[in-house]
Amino acid sequence: MSDDRGERARAAETMRSAPALRAGFALCELTLRELWTAQVALGGMLSEDELRETLELRREPTWAEHDVVAAALNEWFTERGQDHPVAYSEELRSETPDGP
């Protein structure tokens, strides 16, 4: 029973990852190509197509992929004197999912 509960919790966690990236991307002025380049510069391994699919909510990134893209987005915001609005995976995982 606990394995089933763990799987549901993991599913609830990852369902917040791509939307968080999408929201951050919507707030910035980067093009998809610029964001892709920025995440590659930080060591990201996503292809441009994988990044597009993630931002279109058609692909759920791994936590590592999420953190690299979040770092690229947050770097853009902090370079402009703004806060870093995109949550990292640790923050998303620490949120308690709603429901049973």
Polypeptide structure, described:
This protein is mainly alpha-helical. It is built from six helices and no strands. Helix 2 runs parallel beside helix 5 and helix 3 packs across helix 5. It starts with a helix and ends in a 6-residue tail after the last helix. The model has no long low-confidence stretch (mean pLDDT 86).
Class by SSE composition: mainly alpha
Number of helices: 6
Strand content: under 5%
Proportion in helices: 55-70%
The rounded distance between the terminal residues' Cα atoms is 13 Å
What are the segments in which pLDDT stays under 50 over at least 5 consecutive residues?
Answer: none
Gyration radius from CA atoms, angstroms = 14 Å
Largest sheet: none
Whole-number mean pLDDT? 86
Order of helix and strand elements from N to C terminus: HHHHHH
Shape type:
globular
**Strand elements, count:** 0
